[in-house]
Write a structure and sequence with these properties.
The protein is an alpha/beta fold. The chain folds into 2 domains: 1-35; 38-186, Nonspecific Lipid-transfer Protein, Chain A, CATH 3.30.1050.10. The chain contains 7 helices and 6 strands; from the N terminus they run H-E-H-H-E-E-E-E-H-H-E-H-H.
Length: 187
């Protein structure tokens, strides 16, 4: 009888330890997914591809002072970075127990842009990648309208003029912080 109660005691202790570890991991994950504080674009976010933001500098709208047609002709990675900053993509992060950085692929007409978020910095390049989390499909004209008016972003997705495709699994997307981004895109 003593042997059985010793096994039961060990099983209970092991179960309690595993349960405690799961609770702690859940609380930490919940913090990263839902409660992590926003980083501000003016002090912490930097966008690559020559978009010129970060380090305390004022975020410059690349379409400022341009007509839609003029901005479409000048379209480059800075427009993509501006849209991502507008929706808070600088808050994306690798999952808690991983190092896979958030990657967003943009199809703007025939051009393909990749945005990778590393430590709150948005790095944009004109290339395709196999390991992306989401794909955003839109035209240069729609993207320019989004840059000119942040409120138009969700409108473009609601009307179907722009589309978002979830490539990674929902758990991975949530662990990287995409829930608020998806909500901003789809309204």
């Amino acid at each position: 009888m003593i042997l059985k109660s010793g096994r039961i005691r060990k099983s209970i202790i092991i179960s309690l330890i595993v349960f405690a570890i799961l609770i702690i991991a859940g609380l930490i994950s919940g913090y990263y997914v839902f409660l992590a504080k926003d980083k501000t674009t003016s002090s912490g976010s930097k966008a690559g591809a020559g978009s010129g933001t970060g380090g305390g500098s004022r975020l410059v709208n690349p379409a400022e002072g341009l007509s839609i047609e003029e901005a479409v002709k000048k379209f480059d990675g800075s427009f993509v970075a501006y849209i991502l900053i507008s929706i808070g993509a600088y808050n994306l992060h690798p999952p808690m127990f991983g190092s896979d950085t958030p990657k967003i692929e943009f199809y703007i007409g025939d051009a393909i842009y990749l945005a990778e978020i590393i430590d709150g910095r948005i790095n944009v390049g004109k290339r395709e990648i196999a390991e992306k989390d989401i794909i955003i499909w839109t035209s240069a004209e729609e993207a320019v309208k989004m840059v000119k008016d942040k409120n138009y972003i969700s409108e473009s997705f609601k009307t179907g003029a722009s589309k978002v495709e979830l490539v990674a699994g929902k758990i991975e997307l949530a662990a990287k912080g995409y829930i608020s981004i998806y909500d901003k895109l789809t309204g």
